[in-house]
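Lecture notes, part 5. Sequence design as translation. It can be helpful to think of inverse folding as translation between two languages: the language of shapes and the language of residues. The source text, in structure tokens, appears below.
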């Protein structure tokens, strides 16, 4: 998502000559394809920002905003350049039939959202208040607010976008593995020292994997398979379902 935000800056300030939603199911939040096309065409994308997994464009002339979610299979392409090289749960083929949302600029360039499985979507005027603080800039106090008093598994709480925006299941596993914390720990049970350790590894892991190219590049990722061994201590990894998502973790050092 951070790579997409950086790429999206290339679309700013350019007049939109045409907007096209090729599949009405790709529009979320109560609007329809015709409304999205009408609101954007003739205007410019003035600013862009990211809140967790939501990419937001502020439009010029007023307060209207466009939100874009990519799910696990969506890809942003601006002027033919993709924001990421590959997604582990998507195809690299780049078929035109998967282009769900297209913006053509008056200067001849374009911005496209391609999504083979329709897991993402666009929304007009997204409810940003429904999201917690962004994981890349969350403070220790904000992180503790997201966790305290909760008996929910730690991994599930980290992935709750209303509490903390931007952590998916691969990132959560990598963060908890590096922080030596079990995904099953009740979120509110962490000691002050454990909270500080979690916050440090949260920020460091995000910075590290953004630089590497995505959440699939973590140190734990190659071992996420039956019989996989912990890269730190060699123990066999355990596979569980935590918070409704597959989780791989080391029962030896994650407590």
């Amino acid at each position: 998502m951070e790579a997409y935000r950086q790429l999206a800056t290339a679309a700013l300030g350019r007049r939109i000559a045409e907007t096209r939603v090729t599949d009405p199911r790709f529009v979320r939040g109560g609007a329809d394809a015709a409304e999205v096309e009408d609101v954007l065409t003739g205007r410019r994308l003035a600013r862009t920002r990211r809140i967790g997994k939501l990419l937001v464009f502020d439009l010029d002339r007023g307060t209207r905003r466009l939100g874009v979610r990519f799910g696990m299979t969506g890809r942003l392409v601006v002027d033919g350049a993709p924001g990421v090289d590959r997604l582990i749960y998507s195809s690299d083929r780049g078929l035109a039939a998967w282009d769900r949302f297209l913006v053509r600029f008056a200067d001849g360039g374009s911005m496209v959202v391609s999504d083979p499985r329709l897991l993402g979507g666009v929304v007009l005027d997204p409810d940003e208040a429904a999201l917690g603080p962004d994981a890349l800039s969350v403070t220790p106090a904000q992180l503790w607010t997201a966790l305290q008093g909760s008996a929910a598994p730690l991994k599930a709480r980290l992935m709750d976008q209303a509490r903390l925006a931007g952590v998916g299941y691969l990132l959560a596993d990598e963060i908890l593995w590096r922080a030596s914390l079990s995904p099953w720990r009740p979120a509110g049970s962490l000691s002050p020292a454990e909270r500080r350790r979690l916050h440090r590894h949260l920020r460091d892991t995000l910075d590290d994997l953004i630089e590497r190219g995505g959440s699939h590049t973590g140190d734990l990722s190659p071992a996420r398979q039956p019989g996989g061994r912990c890269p730190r201590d060699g123990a066999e990894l355990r596979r569980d379902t935590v918070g409704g998502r597959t989780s791989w973790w080391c029962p030896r050092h994650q407590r």
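The translated text above is only one of many valid answers, since several sequences can fold into similar shapes. The chain has a mean pLDDT of 93.
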